[in-house]
Amino acid sequence: MHKTLSVGLLFGGESPEHEVSIVTARAIAEHLDPARFTVRPMGIARNGVWVVTGDPFARLAAKELPERGAHPFLPLERGAENTHLPDVFFNALHGAGGEDGQLQGYLELLHRPYTGAGLLAMAAGMDKWITKRLWESEGLPVVPYVGLTEERWTRERPVCLADCGKLGLPLFVKPANLGSSIGVEKVKRAEDLPAALDRAFTFDRRVLVEQGLDIREIEVAVLGGDEPLVSQPGEVIVADEFYTFEDKYLHGKSRTEIPAQIPEELADLVRKLAARAFAASDGYGMARVDFFLERLTGRIFLNELNFIPGFTSISMYPKMMAASGVPYGELLTRLIQLALDRHTQMAAKQKGFQSGSNWFQGPKQA
User: Fold this and answer.
1) By residue range, what is the domain housing residue 92?
2) Which of 59, 112, 191, 285 falls 20 to 30 Å from 75 in CA-CA distance?
């Protein structure tokens, strides 16, 4: 019998998406093939400490804040400092800490494979402002926007408001580095914009203000590397004025339709744009690429790219992949294999360099 791979399933984290991550990880744990993988849940508490003993799911659900271990360079809880590394890490952390390059850099230092994109892609993809600038540089269509830093907003509020005013009304205000629609507000009156920006800056020091369009929300799932599989588009048919956190995870009033009811030539265009957007961000592993389809004009705009999308069995990403021939369990297996492939590829790269000289040793002692 072949040896199963141990999979360190990372979830929780310090971001506002902590609870969403727990739900995602539970679904992954239930669907990983037990004949191939041994799941080792590794929860990250809200204080940043890694919970690896007992039942990490129950402990995070109980909002436990364990004490950090004695080794200052390890995030493990006290008493678990000698925990063995898993064969591969499955990253189910949404938001800051897990989806912005921080975790990827740490796992690189541990020399262990991990699912999803690398540090560069994650850091750029997490920041909606940077993502738009990358896409613009590739000639990809994005919604008109203004990016603001907290420092600039504090220093020159009237100028910032004037810049945003050029976009017209309504406007959408978004923290640049959050997901799940947390902190997103629709602003219909100019006098409401300053307070909306103040609230957004409580989540992040970088905020995006976008032109509000009358749109349909079209999404595509991407899986792979240089030549990824791109799913058929799906559509989120939104019940409220936009797809809010409460609707996504609590009320469930909106519904999804897969495939999206759009013309075939438009579906082909969306899939091509998704592949280009994925490549422009150095994507790897998986991503959900979100589009806006303007009702009045039929124009298509890239909205966001999510490298760790919602991942329950009823989330859009797995559902679109299933509709494209990759069921949930197989999807998880493919993601782990992609992680192992990328790790093998990078391990073969030349790491060291020797000049053949002793110049770096400093002056010789007399």
Assistant:
1) 5-114
2) 285
